[in-house]
């Protein structure tokens, strides 16, 4: 509800929901999407509010977040007999209402389960709800939950295309201490390469941005682009020598990793969270544990085959594969089978 589906700029969860919804429709399924009214979908759209909440910051809807989510849940309850499967991406808002309907409900958890221990009493209270993880690392931090399996994210084959690459490094995502843009700046400086930063700055991290990132922005060695659209991402990823992913937390997936791979762009990423599941070391990039190794890896990415990187994306991270895996999960759920 905080972003339209799909989002115009930043918004990983909403982007994945939009991709999955449209691909399920393309595969012949009848789909209803409950989201904000400014969403754009091939499915039937049921809007709980006319405008996504982040884009309505100056409007009345921002003040009634919980009430809007409650309305969304009631919209679903009123139509529950119409639906074979209800697939939630809404965090925890739905758990009390749909616990009695868990035989036909499944929840994809998009957050890292290791981030905040205070969430575990909530998850334990509803541990019988069926959940799907987005990485094996994510699910390993909450082993008592009813995980039915793991489904890695996917992208449409046509969203991005293989490109020749260029001579700059790239950081894409959002500015936050856990994302470590300061590491990206240091890697670029020591590598003697320009760094382009395409990132969202939330108000809560404005001070961090001003203290840690902004002093280095000179438009020559470090260029800050702000949030970028999908159209701009193709040019950015395709023209980059390497994507830097210098995280300092257990990232549950990392959509930018497969966006870069779809363009044939190698990745240098910290060996944390989901990274070892997504990056094939020495093939699609390198996993590293420090700045020195990252600088070495940046030099080595010039030797990687960009066409082979795209081939790995086509084999492992397409929207078709993601939707097919979810359909299998739906079938097992309705058949009463134990998750895998």
What does this structure look like?
- The chain is an alpha/beta fold and 340 residues long.
- It folds into two domains: 12-155 and 319-334, Rossmann fold (3-Layer(aba) Sandwich); 168-316, Rossmann fold.
- It is 36% helix and 16% strand.
- It is built from 13 helices and twelve strands.
- It has helices spanning 12-26, 65-78, 95-98, 120-125, 136-140, 181-191, 206-213, 230-239, 255-262, 275-278, 291-300, 306-316, 319-334; strands at 32-35, 44-47, 86-88, 105-108, 131-133, 147-150, 168-174, 194-200, 222-224, 240-245, 267-270, 285-288.
- The strands form three sheets. It has a six-stranded parallel beta sheet with strand order 9-8-7-10-11-12, with helices on both faces. A four-stranded parallel beta sheet has the order 3-4-5-6. Strands 1-2 form a two-stranded parallel ribbon.
- Helix 1 crosses helix 13 (319-334) and helix 6 (181-191) packs across helix 11 (291-300).
- The chain starts with 11 loop residues before the first helix and ends in a 6-residue tail after the last helix.
Task: Write the topology of this structure.
Blueprint: H1 12-26, E1 32-35, E2 44-47, H2 65-78, E3 86-88, H3 95-98, E4 105-108, H4 120-125, E5 131-133, H5 136-140, E6 147-150, E7 168-174, H6 181-191, E8 194-200, H7 206-213, E9 222-224, H8 230-239, E10 240-245, H9 255-262, E11 267-270, H10 275-278, E12 285-288, H11 291-300, H12 306-316, H13 319-334
Parallel strand pairs: 1-2, 3-4, 4-5, 5-6, 7-8, 7-10, 8-9, 10-11, 11-12
């Amino acid at each position: 509800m905080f972003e339209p589906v799909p989002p115009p700029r930043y918004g990983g969860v909403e982007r994945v929901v939009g991709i999955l919804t449209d691909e399920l429709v393309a595969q012949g399924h009848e789909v209803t999407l409950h989201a904000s009214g400014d969403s754009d979908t091939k499915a039937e759209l049921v809007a709980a509010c006319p405008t996504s909440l982040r884009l309505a910051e100056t409007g009345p809807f921002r003040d009634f977040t919980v009430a809007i989510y409650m309305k969304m849940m009631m919209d679903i309850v009123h139509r529950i007999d119409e639906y074979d499967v209800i697939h939630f991406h809404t965090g925890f808002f739905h758990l009390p209402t749909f616990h009695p309907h868990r035989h036909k409900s499944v929840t994809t958890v998009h957050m890292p389960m290791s981030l905040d221990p205070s969430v575990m009493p909530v998850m334990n209270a509803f541990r019988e709800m069926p959940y799907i993880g987005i990485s094996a690392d994510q699910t390993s931090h909450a082993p008592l939950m009813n995980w039915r399996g793991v489904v890695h994210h996917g992208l449409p084959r046509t969203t991005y295309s293989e490109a020749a690459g260029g001579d700059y490094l790239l950081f894409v995502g959002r500015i936050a201490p856990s994302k470590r843009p300061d590491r990206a700046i240091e890697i670029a400086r020591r590598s003697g390469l320009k760094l382009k930063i395409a990132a969202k700055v939330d108000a809560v991290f404005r001070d961090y941005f001003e203290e840690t990132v902004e002093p280095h922005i000179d438009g020559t060695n470090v260029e800050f682009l702000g949030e970028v659209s999908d159209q701009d991402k193709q040019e950015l990823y395709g023209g980059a020598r390497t994507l830097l992913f210098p995280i300092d937390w257990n990232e549950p997936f990392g959509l930018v990793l497969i966006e870069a791979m779809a363009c044939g762009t190698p990745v240098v990423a910290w060996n944390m969270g989901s990274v070892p599941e997504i990056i094939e070391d020495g093939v699609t990039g390198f996993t590293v544990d420090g700045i020195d190794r990252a600088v070495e890896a940046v030099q080595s990415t010039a030797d990687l085959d960009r066409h082979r990187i795209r081939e790995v994306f086509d084999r492992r991270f397409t929207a078709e594969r993601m939707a097919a895996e979810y359909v299998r999960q739906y079938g097992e759920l309705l058949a009463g089978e134990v998750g895998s």
